[in-house]
Amino acid sequence: MATRMKLKLKTVFVLYFMVSLMGLIYALMQLGQRCDCTEHNMPKDRTISRLRGELHRFQEQLRKSEATKQPQKQPAKPTIFVITPTYARLVQKAELTRLSQTFLNVPQLHWIVVEDSPHKTPLVTDLLVKSGLTHTHLHMPTAKDRKLQEGDPSWLKPRGVEQRNEGLRWLREDRRAQPGGDNQQGVVYFADDDNTYSLQIFEEMRSTERVSVWPVGLVGGMKYERPVVEGGKVVRFHTGWRPSRPFPMDMAGFAVSLKLILANQEACFDGDAPMGFLESSLLQGLVTMDELEPKADNCSKVLVWHTRTEKPKMKREEALQAQGLGSDRAVEV
Amino acid sequence: MPKRRDIVAIILIVLPWTLLITVWHQSAITPLLSTRKGKSGLRGDIVEVVRTEYVYSRPPPWSDVLPSIHVITPTYSRPVQKAELTRLANTLLHVPNLHWILVEDSQRTTTSVVRLLQETGLNYTHLNVETPRNYKVRGDTRDPRIPRGTIQRNLALRWLRETFSINSSQSGIVYFADDDNTYSLELFDEMRSTKKVSVWPVAFVGGLRYESPKVNKLGKVYGWKTVFDPRRPFAIDMAGFAVNLRLILSKPQAYFKLRGVKGGYQESSLLKELVTLSDLEPKAANCTKVLVWHTRTEKPVLVNEGKKGFTDSNVEI
């Protein structure tokens, strides 16, 4: 009886062991495959499938719109080349961020950022890459004697001259290699990183043949400065400061056609020009007043503002730094 | 001898079952992990699609799945107002499922703001309420005891409570965005997953490069990294937190306190009615990245306007 029982037990054990082993193998095979039956994930799964559905829809829409766009793509919009000089200070990242967000709304825009620095900084490099914009990243340091020192008023020395000229130089070199030669379509605009631009101004300037002009808000100590237009032509300038300048406008108040820039290889900003004459130093060699093209509804609408950003107060930060407890430098601001 | 045999037998029985159970447990988790990864990867793809493919379609198409973000912006008339609202709108045009609640500090809605809102194409609600004279900031002095924009923000909260019922399945996030700050697009992505109240660092406030919540290793907020009165219940700037709409609706008495609020305590006056410190959700990589800057725009010097105004007042700036 005992041996029979032992035998029975043995077979039971063996069977048991075999069944367990098979179960183990089955489970191991399950591991390799994705399991569809996760009840506790229902809401997440639903979200995922909805998102996937939306993604498919968007992709289809895009494919459809691309298909219809193809035949119409021949007359391409002229590209707007925006040259922005920038320099490192506390608010730099914020300014470039919100500027890039404006530009991201404008089709056919090529952003040329020129840093006032002996080399490209990672802050600007990363920002440009993440922005999603078509861009060119350049750098050109300002000569020491031309640079504003701490405590200097902002109007003491002209700013951004070397950087804008570097932008022009690069543009000319880059465009030389493009088809079309000097007849290329395009517009060049000098956009400082602290101004505010509406989206309409970019559409206004796209049709520039030579040099187009428009009002600029909050500049020259006035609500706005603008060219005065009579009979579709600019006859004089409405400005509160030194109206006798050849072109008493702000940098943000005009755009130059690419053709004109390429046809006048030597035209650039003159850093030695007296205060307020920077714009004139470029435009003098390019165009006369009656050739200017007024935009923005015959220069009656303000579509760009010369805003300035306050320097953030750092008293507490400086106090902490004196104690060696300043904020973490690794955190980029 | 039988003892050893028994032990061997027991091991032989138990071992495969323990292995089986462990493996089964593992396999139950892996699909969970893979779907989670899949979700975030997918989400990353969706965000990419919206940003780069739909750059020129402004604003992005409304999604049925993303929670809406209700951005409450108080604004008041001054020379830079149109410029500020323009560049803020240019930013918001990239945010999917955004609802802009603009509240003017005025007796009635002004035509220039109405026109601006219409031209942007954004999904918006335009409200207005005038701050009574005795609450207004006098002249140029930035008196911190007089809270600016409070009445306007409260009106927006009331509008939300009147418009959305707590029973609706609509998910939403409420964010207070002043019109002169600078917001990165990543910030709106971060706040979308807010369950109660989420927080993150803000640059250029409190006289520092940035102020930020203190987050411990467990991912919980336990304090505030500020110099200016870090003992405030919520030592955070208006731009440094977002609230889930459901929380706003479930606590209908929670508003910003108007009277008797010390400088810097305005945010606390609302948040202490809504959450406790331990409920806060830190975002921006556990509050180590700066995604919003408290920029301030200089007041333009209008010396050349003179007494009578040099420029044509019909031209809107």
UniProtKB/TrEMBL annotation, chain A:
Signal peptide: none annotated. The keyword Manganese applies. GO terms for biological process: carbohydrate metabolic process; cartilage development; chondroitin sulfate proteoglycan biosynthetic process; extracellular matrix organization; heparan sulfate proteoglycan biosynthetic process. Its cofactor is Mn(2+). GO terms for molecular function: galactosylgalactosylxylosylprotein 3-beta-glucuronosyltransferase activity; metal ion binding. Mn(2+) binds at D194. Keywords: Disulfide bond, Glycoprotein, Golgi apparatus, Manganese, Membrane, Metal-binding, Signal-anchor, Transferase, Transmembrane, Transmembrane helix. Belongs to the glycosyltransferase 43 family. This is Galactosylgalactosylxylosylprotein 3-beta-glucuronosyltransferase.
Automatic annotation (TrEMBL), chain B:
Mn(2+) binds at D180. Coiled coil: none annotated. It is found in: Golgi apparatus membrane; Secreted. Glycans are attached at N286. The chain crosses the membrane at residues 7-25. GO terms for biological process: carbohydrate metabolic process; chondroitin sulfate proteoglycan biosynthetic process. Pfam families: Glyco_transf_43. One of its GO terms (molecular function) is metal ion binding. It is a single-pass type II membrane protein. Keywords: Glycoprotein, Golgi apparatus, Manganese, Membrane, Metal-binding, Phosphoprotein, Secreted, Signal-anchor, Transferase, Transmembrane, Transmembrane helix. InterPro entries: Glyco_trans_43, Nucleotide-diphossugar_trans. The record marks E211, N304 as: Interaction with galactose moiety of substrate glycoprotein. The active site is at E267 (proton donor/acceptor). It catalyses: 3-O-(beta-D-galactosyl-(1->3)-beta-D-galactosyl-(1->4)-beta-D-xylosyl)-L-seryl-[protein] + UDP-alpha-D-glucuronate = 3-O-(beta-D-GlcA-(1->3)-beta-D-Gal-(1->3)-beta-D-Gal-(1->4)-beta-D-Xyl)-L-seryl-[protein] + UDP + H(+). The keyword tRNA-binding does not apply. GO terms for cellular component: extracellular region; Golgi membrane. UDP-alpha-D-glucuronate binds at P74, T75, Y76, D105, R148, R153, D178, D179, D180, H294, T295, R296. Its cofactor is Mn(2+). Pathway: Protein modification; protein glycosylation. It comes from the Eukaryota. Belongs to the glycosyltransferase 43 family. Involved in the biosynthesis of L2/HNK-1 carbohydrate epitope on glycoproteins. Can also play a role in glycosaminoglycan biosynthesis. Substrates include asialo-orosomucoid (ASOR), asialo-fetuin, and asialo-neural cell adhesion molecule. Requires sphingomyelin for activity: stearoyl-sphingomyelin was the most effective, followed by palmitoyl-sphingomyelin and lignoceroyl-sphingomyelin. Activity was demonstrated only for sphingomyelin with a saturated fatty acid and not for that with an unsaturated fatty acid, regardless of the length of the acyl group. Homodimer. Interacts with SAR1A. This is Galactosylgalactosylxylosylprotein 3-beta-glucuronosyltransferase.
